[in-house]
Q: What sequence folds into this?
């Protein structure tokens, strides 16, 4: 009797059905190479460990809620040579998470702040840390909505307890009460307990302007900046247009509009 149907049932009962993905290939390899039973078993177990690790990584990446899967390997350090590459590579080791300090990534629009923040978050996920990526607007909107559904405490606890919180676009919109209080409470709760990455178009000296309550803003920023690392991204924008913009303000002709409607290019 062929053992495969019975084996499949047993693997499923043991929640090892993933073994089936490589079982046939490994079985053929074992026959061709005349491997010992223990060597064959070791390969199967290694495949299962790798499969589970990848599944765990994929789940953690989904929970992190990154906009896209940006990594350090994808970041173009040559585009703006003034970037402190050594500092960024050092941050990619995630030792700052062990230090429980913040990282500020500041610079003009389009210089790669969000990419870099997500890339560092990706490094953290690969090292086993829980990560949450959000923007200032989304974070504060969710907390405000949670008040209406009596889930504020749950949302707040999730934000304060995650190993690495990444807040993108700080100061892009001015804070309004009680947003400034919510942000202060999150920062205070995470202070010296968890690490936070914040990106902003504003330089650190301008962050206080985002707070309507200057005293509260000063207290929030003081906690964030204690022991923090600062990455300055300056130079050209990755979002620069590919061609000249002399005619950018001119309306396209009827022919051009028709071409665009069909998904073509303007000649």
A:
């Amino acid at each position: 009797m062929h053992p495969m149907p019975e084996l499949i049932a047993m693997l499923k009962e043991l929640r090892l059905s993933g073994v089936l993905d490589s079982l046939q290939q490994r079985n053929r390899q074992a026959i061709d190479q005349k491997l010992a039973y223990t060597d064959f078993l070791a390969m199967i177990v290694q495949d299962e460990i790798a499969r589970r690790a990848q599944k765990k990584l994929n789940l953690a990446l989904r929970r992190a809620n990154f906009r896209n899967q940006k990594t350090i390997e994808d970041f173009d350090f040559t585009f703006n040579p003034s970037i402190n590459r050594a500092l960024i590579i050092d941050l990619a080791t995630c030792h700052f998470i062990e230090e429980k300090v913040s990282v500020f990534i500041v610079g003009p629009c389009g210089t790669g702040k969000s990419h870099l923040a997500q890339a560092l978050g990706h490094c953290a996920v690969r090292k086993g840390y829980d990560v949450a990526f959000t923007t200032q607007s989304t974070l504060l909107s969710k907390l405000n909505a949670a008040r209406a559904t009596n889930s504020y405490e749950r949302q707040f606890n999730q934000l304060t307890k995650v190993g690495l919180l990444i807040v993108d676009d700080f100061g892009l919109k001015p804070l309004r009460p009680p947003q400034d209080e919510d942000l202060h409470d999150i920062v205070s709760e995470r202070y010296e307990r968890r690490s936070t990455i914040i990106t902003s178009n504003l330089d650190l000296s301008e962050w206080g302007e985002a707070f309507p309550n200057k005293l509260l803003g000063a207290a929030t920023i003081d906690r964030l900046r204690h022991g923090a690392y600062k990455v300055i991204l300056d130079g050209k924008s990755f979002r620069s247009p590919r061609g000249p913009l002399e005619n950018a303000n001119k309306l396209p002709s009827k022919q051009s509009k028709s071409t665009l409607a069909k998904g073509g290019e303007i000649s």
Confidence is low (pLDDT under 50) at residues 253-267.
